[in-house]
Structures are given as structure tokens and as C-alpha cells.
Specification:
With about 375 residues, the protein is of the alpha/beta class. It has two domains: about 5-115 and about 350-365, Enolase-like, N-terminal domain (Enolase-like, domain 1); about 120-340, TIM Barrel, CATH 3.20.20.120. Helix content is about 35%, strand content about 20%. It has 13 helices and 17 strands. Strands 7-8-9-10-11-12-13 form a seven-stranded parallel β-sheet. It has a four-stranded antiparallel β-sheet with strand order 5-4-1-17. The structure holds N-succinyl phenylglycine (NPG). N-succinyl phenylglycine binds near residues 50 and 135.
Length: about 375
């Protein structure tokens, strides 16, 4: 298979509601999309990089530059025997997994289409529905938090994740537990704490959280291991796991009991699969995270979450959790029991609404 050309675009999309994390508030999302011209067809991919370097050092701007300057020149016009070939050509570029991932995932979807298989089946998936949860940003008041949770539960979500930060943690979780003693609940700190906060974080133990996600800075496996020895709540790592090597070392150190895999964060499906396998061998469950993706990235997440060791509900909400209108058809919808159906069409499995994408595009360039 040969990639003949790639169009890079940035869209501007308004979120239905502002999303607040310990990094700040987000009202608009600027997804970077790639459209590969491959095998005589268009194949879309989505980069999960954010607008600023908060979650990761990568941004929409750096992804654009790395794609245009390094990754695309390395692959365009070459005969690529498979994903291994792509990974080999990308290897000299250090890091920049988000930029790499959008190409790797689009290329993999093209391979699936070529093999006449839905992406999930092509990856080795074993289910036709994936369990999903919902992520709730930091709210102005506890009442608003409880209202927001009530609304999501009414929609059918079965697992609630709430964002926490110093000043918005123990009391917020306590209020939720008082109202909802039995719901499946977890908290995500997005690196907002330090090891010195261990005693404070141990106060969360009494709320039977499914897990506490990324309490300490990204990359800090040693301190996460020390923290895990001081709290009972299972630690889940997200930002800290950028590769299979990180996953292996995290498990060796006892830095976590759960791993959040985002294919967009780790460089694509192949690396996700390696992390999945390392976790499975270590008896550690994984789940699929989300990065406010459009339907393109969402389709990739859904496909990945069909692998066997994705044993916990992911942040793979329905399209209408974030968007008035998704850029894919059909959009992802929530089914009974808080699940999302896995597309059965070949390849990515959803059709991109190019007219809508055109209207939302704020920047585009063709690279040949
Ligand atoms: O449902 O797509 C979703 C969002 C889930 O909370 C979510 N993502 O830290 O995992 C995270 C967080 C995030 C969103 C991080 C956007 C960075 C950007």
C-alpha cells in the first residue's frame, strides 16, 4: 500500500458545554485531521493533540509541524508493507506520539478496509458492543456536580468519572457518595497532586472508587509507586504511559493497578496493542480513554476497546455528549446498559461528512 498524498486540516468545533479539568477550561476544540490518499481512496485520521501544552507537550501546532516537516516526507510515495514499515520510518522522530498516531490509525483503517474487515475485527477485537462511561468536568458548585451526574445517569451512562483538583476533591466525592452510594465512580486528577498529598488522597479510600486516575505528574512512575503503597484506591495511569516500555516499568514498580490506553497518546494501535498485552500478562485491566474526539477518533477508540483486556468501561461517550452534530455518519449513540455498538462496516466503519468538515475547517494544506 502506498500513501500518495495527505491533506492536513484543523477544524474549529464548539463543545456543547465548556469542559473544565485541572488544566483549565475548554470551550472550543480544534481537531487536527489527516486525509490520506491511499489505494485510490480517502482515509481519515484524527490527532488528539490539544490547543496548548497542558496534557502533553504536543499541541495542534507542533503536530502540524511534525507531520508536515518529518512524518509525511518519510512515508509519502513509499510502498509500505504494513504498520511495521510505518513505525520503522517514524522511529527516528523522537516522541510526538499524537502526530504519529493519526497517521498510524488512518493507515491501519485503510489496511482493514483493504482486507474487507471492520477495524475492530482487523485489530483482533472480541465484542460487538463496548461499555462506556462518562467524564464530568470540574463544576462551580456541588449542586451543579450532582445535577450533572443525575443527567448523565438518566441518559444511561453506568460509570461516572469526575475530574478533581486540590480544593475540589474529598468533599465533592463525599457529596456524590452520599447521594449515590452504589454507582460505579472514579476520579481523575490529571497530575494535580504531589506525593506530599498522600495522606490527603488516602481520605478518598473510604468512597470505594473504582480507581484514582493520574494523581501525580506525568512520567513519574517512582512516586506513583510510593503513593500506591500509601492508598488503597487503585491508581490508574494515563499521561504517565506513553509507550509499552512505560507500561512495563509501571507494572514492575507497582506504580498502578489499571492502565488507561488512548491510542492517540501512545502512537497508535500497534503500541496500544503492546501495552494491552503487557497489562494482560500482568493481570492488570485496561480501558480506553478519550480526548474529546470527533467521530473519527471515537471510531478508533471503539475499535480498540473491543480487545479482550479492555475490561473496564471507557471514556467513549456518545457523539452527543460533546457535539451538536458529529462529523461522521452515523454518529455514535448510547444503547441500553451504557454501551456503544461497534461499527460493522469495513475499515473505520463510519462515513465522514465532508461537507460539514469543509464548513468547520479553519486551516488546510495538501502535502504530496
Ligand atoms: O470523553 O473524550 C472524553 C473526555 C474524557 O476526561 C476526558 N479526557 O484527562 O483523560 C483526560 C481528559 C482529557 C480531555 C484530556 C481532553 C485532554 C484533553
Amino acid at each position: 500500500m502506498k500513501i500518495d498524498a495527505v491533506e492536513i486540516r484543523v477544524l474549529k468545533m464548539r463543545l456543547l458545554a465548556p469542559f473544565r479539568t485541572s488544566f483549565g477550561v475548554q470551550q472550543d476544540r480544534y481537531p487536527l485531521l489527516v486525509r490520506l490518499e491511499i489505494d485510490g481512496r480517502s482515509q481519515w485520521g484524527e490527532c488528539v493533540a490539544g490547543e496548548g501544552p497542558w496534557y502533553s507537550y504536543e499541541t495542534v501546532e507542533t503536530a502540524w509541524q511534525i507531520l508536515k516537516g518529518y512524518l509525511l516526507p518519510a512515508v509519502i510515495g513509499r510502498e509500505l508493507s504494513g504498520v511495521d514499515a510505518l513505525e520503522t520510518l517514524f522511529a527516528p522522530v523522537r516522541g510526538h506520539h499524537m502526530a504519529k498516531a493519526c497517521l498510524e490509525m488512518a493507515f491501519t483503517a485503510a489496511l482493514a478496509e483493504h482486507a474487507r474487515k471492520p477495524l475492530a475485527k482487523f485489530l483482533g477485537g472480541v465484542r460487538d458492543r463496548v461499555e462506556t462511561g462518562v467524564s464530568i468536568g470540574i463544576q462551580a458548585t456541588t449542586d451543579e456536580l450532582l445535577e450533572s451526574i443525575a443527567a448523565r445517569l438518566a441518559e444511561g451512562y453506568r460509570r461516572i468519572k469526575v475530574k478533581i483538583e486540590p480544593g475540589w476533591d474529598v468533599q465533592a466525592i463525599e457529596a456524590i457518595r452520599e447521594r449515590y452510594p452504589e454507582i460505579t465512580l472514579m476520579a481523575d486528577a490529571n497530575s494535580a497532586y504531589e506525593l506530599d498529598d498522600a495522606a490527603h488522597l488516602a481520605q478518598l479510600d473510604r468512597f470505594r472508587l473504582l480507581m484514582l486516575e493520574q494523581p501525580l505528574p506525568a512520567g513519574d512512575l517512582v512516586d506513583h509507586a510510593a503513593l500506591q503503597r500509601q492508598i488503597r484506591t487503585p491508581i490508574c495511569l494515563d499521561e504517565s504511559i506513553e509507550s509499552a516500555r512505560d507500561a512495563r516499568q509501571a507494572l514492575q514498580l507497582g506504580a498502578c493497578q489499571v492502565i488507561n490506553i488512548k491510542p492517540g497518546r501512545v502512537g497508535g494501535f500497534a503500541e496500544s496493542r503492546r501495552i494491552h498485552d503487557i497489562a494482560a500478562n500482568g493481570g492488570v485491566p485496561v480501558w480506553c480513554g478519550g480526548m474529546l474526539e470527533t467521530g473519527i477518533g471515537r471510531a478508533c477508540n471503539v475499535a480498540l476497546a473491543t480487545l479482550p483486556n479492555f475490561r473496564l468501561p471507557g471514556d467513549i461517550s456518545a457523539s452527543d455528549r460533546y457535539w451538536a452534530q458529529d462529523i461522521v455518519e452515523p454518529p455514535f449513540v448510547l444503547h441500553k446498559g451504557g454501551t456503544i455498538a461497534v461499527p460493522t462496516r469495513w475499515g473505520l466503519g463510519v462515513r465522514v461528512n465532508v461537507e460539514l468538515v469543509d464548513r468547520l475547517t479553519v486551516r488546510r494544506e495538501m502535502v504530496r
